[in-house]
Amino acid sequence: MDAKLIVSFRKEFPRIRIEGEFEFERGFNVILGPSGCGKTTTFRIICGLENPDEGFIRCCEEVFLDTRKDIYLPPQKRRLGVVFQEDNLLPHLSVKENIEFATRKAGGKVENIDELIEHFGLEALKDKKPKELSGGEKQRVAIVRALASNPRALLMDEPFSSLDFRRKMSIMEFLKGLKFNIPVVIVTHDPFETLFLADKVFIMEKGRKVCEGGRELVEGVFSELLKLSGAQPSF
Ligand SMILES: Nc1ncnc2c1ncn2[C@@H]1O[C@H](COP(=O)(O)OP(=O)(O)OP(=O)(O)O)[C@@H](O)[C@H]1O
C-alpha cells in the first residue's frame, strides 16, 4: 500500500497567496517556517478544515480533494489523526473515556482501548480527568487518542509549543519511540524540534514552500542558525 500523503494547493487571501507541493512519506515530516508563512493554512487544508482555491490531496490511494473534479472529502471521512497546539480533550471525561469517545466517533473499535492504553504507557493516567494532567501528559493523551482510530496519517500543529523544555523533550522522545508506519506531519517554527524529529523537512516562507530535503538539509539549517545566533553547541 502506498502510504504517501500527496498535497498540492493554492489559496488566495487578500494580502498573501499560500501555495505548495508536498509529498509526505512514512516517518516524520516537518513543515518549518516563521510566523505567518502559511503553515497552519497548509495544515487546515490537509485536514479539510479549510478549502483551497485549487488543489489536490491524496493519501493511501484515496483522493481527499480534487478541485478540478469537484471532489471534496469532509474532515471526518479523511481518517486522519489530528493533534492541535492545545489538547482539546473533553474536560468531563477521563483519559480512557476521551480515547473511547474519539475512537467511536471515528468509527473505530473500542474493544482494544485497554491494550492501547497499556501499549502507550498511559495506565497511571487512564482514570484521570484532563484538569488533573500536566500539559505534557495531555499532549501524550491527545497523540494516543489521535492514533486510536488507526489513522492514515498523523497531523500535528505546533504540538509542543506550550510545553517547557523538559516536557517537550519527554514527549518528543515518546513520539520518536513509536516507529510510525504512516506519514506524521508536524508543523512548527522551532528548528530544534525539527532537528530532533524530522526525517524530511519542508521549509516555508511568505506563503510558499522554498525548499525540502532529508536529514542533510535539517542539520544544515540548524548549523546555519547556530552560526547566525553566535551560540556554541554544547553537544
Ligand atoms: N482567513 C484568513 N483571511 C485573511 N488572511 C488570512 C486568513 N488566514 C490566514 N491568513 C493569512 O495567511 C498568512 C499565513 O497564516 P498562517 O496562520 O497559515 O501562518 P502560520 O505560518 O501558521 O503562522 P503562525 O505560526 O503565526 O500560526 C498570514 O499572513 C495570515 O494573515
From TrEMBL:
InterPro entries: AAA+_ATPase, ABC_SmlMolc_Importer, ABC_transporter-like_ATP-bd, ABC_transporter-like_CS, P-loop_NTPase. Residues 1-231 form the ABC transporter domain. Pfam families: ABC_tran (PF00005). It comes from Hydrogenivirga caldilitoris. Transmembrane segments: none annotated. It comes from the Bacteria. Signal peptide: none annotated. This is Molybdate transport system ATP-binding protein.
